[in-house]
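If your schedule permits, I should be very grateful for your opinion on a structural question. Please examine both parts with care and let me know of anything in them that strikes you as inconsistent. The record follows directly beneath this note:
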Amino acid sequence: MISALKRQKKSIALGIAALSTLGVLATSGTASASSTAETKALACGWDPTPALAAAYYNHCDPSTHVLIRVERTWPLSDYDQCVGPGRTYLGTTYEVHNAWYKGSLC
């Protein structure tokens, strides 16, 4: 019984640590772009933050702008967008469900 309580306390502590880390990552970027150091810590490409219901696209090459396709939930229309280096806010995850590199610069 005591070891089960210790495991539960450890699980709770790990969960709190994970949520704290998500909060730090979520606030480390700006709405349009972040520094190269911050960009490398995040995933490249489609990079949503589910805890904040925020949809982002993170372009990791610091020297180019690329064309992405932003896929939105019906009945909203999908659209193309030019993004620069860093993390670009696309909207909420309720409206945007994916974004991907179209293979060209802009």
About this structure: Residues 68 and 88 are 11 Å apart (CA to CA).
